[in-house]
């Protein structure tokens, strides 16, 4: 077959890479199909015209400056360029400049999708790191709250009801409760706190929360509810769902500064929009919870950070930056997905997609409110926080138990080898061994050895076993510890 310029043009048009030639006056001489498409134009519309005439403002960019230097100095170079199309959308290209006798060849590869994936990966890694940090802070803070709660309760019991000291202790216990709520939000973000799933009606829970928040929204907020009938249940803890709805609704109210329309929608869907964080979306039926406000909206830069803990645009109004981070953590734990759409001046929509659960799970029974039982058994308590260790020892000894309290797994192993204990009470995270490993050591010595775990957070490697473990979450009240110890001892 005879080779011709038409053959060459067809080859160049078949390439994925863009190829364009510009002359020394910065006019387009040639563009293949990919190069024209990269600029959202055609070769017929561009050839013979200056770049600055085709794309006003391009002469102010770093790309234009670099290609001008390559033309003048007759040298090769390359760069990654962010190109803003006339409609305001952004694309990323990898560019290479090569001098030729006719001027300059620019070769371009569209890396917009690759760039987006890299950005999502970086965001996911940042969120994971912040999650680990949040979980660690919550773990240490829960230790302090456990001590604070325990000794405040001792004071409350030791002084007459109605006295100033009794009132002070009551205030301290209430403050500890608020602190526990804050650490619960940190743990929810870090995915370190296990929630108890159940077959939950999203529409019913959202309705209850909206009824409760009616007055809090203010007279200036018009609330619109759109609830599709017959929605399937989803597998999420009711309390977690209430927290999700509450945080999203209050965030919307704040975004509107108390004036505007707030729309809450629930419906079934089989479509989950493109990922914003690179997570995999399983096919299936989802229940959508959408919360839309008519507030000032968010810039793309704010949207990128909106789920990061401690990031807030409401610092002057007392915002903690944990509300949306908590929502992200709880949704992720439920196997769901969250999407954000926002335009400056036009408001914001948060869409949460929960995978459906057609099988009703039996709800977990609440812990009975019964008198604290006493005992005489030997109990080994292990925790690397001296204050928590002291509190647990004092609480159990006051009920008649014989207690050995140590601060490390190594010390616990020595005692387990030489003595007999009816129960091991251990923190999940210890220097050297984990609590689970210590429990396995105890069971190897004496099969069937009972263990009660205490934990401010559960490590990722242990969460998979959480259904089989008996765990008391920090911070705990001395009465809670006593009841759980008695329950563990009475197990067959």
Please report the first level of CATH classification, the CATH class of the largest domain: Alpha Beta
- For the record, what is the CATH homologous superfamily label of the largest domain? Histidine kinase-like ATPase, C-terminal domain
List segments where confidence is low: pLDDT < 50 over at least 5 consecutive residues. Answer: 315-320, 358-369, 457-467
Shape: elongated
Description:
The protein has 492 residues and is an alpha/beta fold. The chain folds into four domains: 106 residues, Beta-Lactamase (2-Layer Sandwich); 76 residues; 157 residues, Heat Shock Protein 90, CATH 3.30.565; 113 residues, Rossmann fold (3-Layer(aba) Sandwich). 43% of the residues lie in helices and 21% in strands. The strands form four sheets. It has a five-stranded antiparallel beta sheet with strand order 2-1-5-4-3, sandwiched between helices. α6 runs antiparallel to α7 and α9 runs antiparallel to α11. The radius of gyration is 31 Å and the shape is elongated. The termini are far apart.
Strand-helix topology:
Layout: H1 5-14, E1 18-22, E2 28-31, H2 33-38, H3 43-46, H4 51-54, H5 62-73, E3 77-84, E4 90-100, E5 103-110, H6 112-158, H7 164-190, E6 199-200, H8 202-217, E7 221-227, E8 234-235, H9 238-255, E9 260-269, E10 286-293, H10 300-305, H11 323-333, E11 337-343, E12 347-355, E13 378-382, H12 386-397, E14 402-406, H13 409-418, E15 423-427, H14 435-445, E16 451-455, H15 460-463, E17 471-473, H16 478-490
Parallel strand pairs: 7-9, 13-14, 13-15, 15-16, 16-17
Antiparallel strand pairs: 1-2, 1-5, 3-4, 4-5, 6-8, 9-10, 10-12, 11-12
């Amino acid at each position: 077959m005879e080779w011709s310029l038409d053959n060459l043009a067809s080859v160049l048009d078949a390439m994925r890479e863009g190829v364009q030639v510009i002359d020394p006056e910065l006019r387009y001489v040639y563009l293949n199909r990919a190069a024209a498409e990269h600029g959202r134009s055609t070769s017929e519309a561009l050839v013979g015209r200056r770049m600055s005439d085709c794309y006003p403002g391009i002469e102010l960019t770093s790309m234009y400056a670099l290609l001008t230097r390559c033309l003048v100095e007759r040298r090769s170079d390359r760069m990654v360029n962010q190109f803003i199309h006339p409609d305001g959308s952004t694309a990323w290209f990898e560019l290479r400049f090569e001098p030729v006798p006719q001027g300059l060849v620019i070769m371009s590869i569209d890396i917009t999708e690759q760039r987006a994936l890299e950005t999502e990966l970086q965001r996911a890694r940042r969120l994971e790191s912040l999650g680990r940090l949040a979980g660690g802070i919550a773990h240490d803070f829960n230790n302090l709250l456990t001590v604070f709660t325990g000794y405040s309760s001792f004071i409350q019991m030791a002084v007459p009801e109605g006295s100033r000291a009794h009132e002070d202790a009551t205030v301290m216990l209430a403050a500890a409760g608020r602190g526990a709520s804050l650490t619960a939000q940190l743990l929810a973000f870090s995915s370190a706190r296990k929630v108890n799933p159940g077959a939950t009606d999203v529409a019913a829970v959202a309705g209850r929360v909206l009824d409760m928040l009616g007055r809090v929204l203010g007279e200036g907020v018009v609330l619109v509810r759109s609830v599709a009938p017959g929605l399937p249940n989803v597998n999420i803890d009711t309390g977690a769902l209430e927290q999700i709805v509450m945080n999203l609704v209050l965030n919307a109210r704040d975004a509107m500064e108390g004036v505007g329309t707030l729309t809450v929608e629930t419906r079934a869907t089989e479509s989950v929009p493109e990922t914003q964080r690179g997570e995999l979306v399983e096919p299936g039926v989802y229940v959508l919870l959408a919360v839309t406000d008519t507030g000032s909206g968010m810039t793309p830069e704010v949207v990128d950070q909106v789920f990061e803990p401690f990031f807030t645009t409401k610092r002057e109004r007392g915002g903690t930056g944990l509300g949306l981070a908590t929502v992200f953590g709880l949704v992720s734990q439920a196997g769901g997905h969250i999407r954000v759409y926002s335009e400056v001046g036009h408001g914001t929509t948060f869409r949460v997609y929960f995978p459906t659960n057609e099988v009703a799970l039996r709800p977990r029974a609440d812990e009975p409110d019964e008198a604290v039982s006493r005992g005489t058994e030997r109990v080994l308590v292990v925790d690397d926080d001296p204050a928590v260790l002291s509190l647990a020892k004092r609480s159990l000894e006051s009920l008649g138990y014989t207690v050995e309290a140590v601060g490390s797994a190594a010390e616990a192993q020595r005692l387990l080898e030489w003595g007999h204990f009816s129960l091991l009470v251990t923190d999940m995270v210890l220097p050297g061994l984990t609590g689970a490993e210590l429990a396995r050591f105890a069971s190897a010595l004496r099969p069937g050895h009972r263990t009660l775990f205490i934990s401010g957070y559960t490590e990722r490697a242990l969460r998979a076993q959480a259904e089989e473990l008996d765990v008391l979450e920090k911070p705990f009240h001395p009465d809670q510890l006593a009841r759980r110890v008695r329950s563990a001892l009475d197990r067959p």
